[in-house]
Design a protein that fits this description.
99 residues; alpha+beta; 36% helix
Length: 99
């Protein structure tokens, strides 16, 4: 099987979108991944405590990063844009229902 391209997104752009949507909750998002949390539309998963995954069920889109948001990020959809990422993260934030 072919390995996904590292840095699907420019690291600064990727991190910027996460910070735009989650502001000071990015650490909470990584904790949710470590808890292997499932929402109505997403699965958040962490492998070996340093590889983070967000899987969107309906589209099958998987985004991943290593250790810190943006570091060696990958995406299984080669046409997935920053606007697509932004939409996905907005849906994820709604699903997480943080209060």
């Amino acid at each position: 099987m072919k390995t996904l391209k590292q840095y699907h997104f420019n690291r600064d752009d990727f991190t910027s979108v996460f910070n735009e949507i989650f502001a000071n909750r990015c650490f909470d998002l990584e904790v949710a991944c470590q808890e292997h949390r499932e929402t109505e539309n997403f699965l958040l998963y962490c492998k070996d405590y340093d590889e983070f995954y967000i899987i969107h069920f309906d589209s099958g889109t998987i985004i991943n990063w290593y250790k810190h948001i943006g570091r060696i990020n990958t995406c299984n959809d080669k046409d997935f844009s920053l606007n697509d990422l932004r939409e996905m993260l907005i849906l994820l934030k709604e699903d997480l229902e943080w209060r």
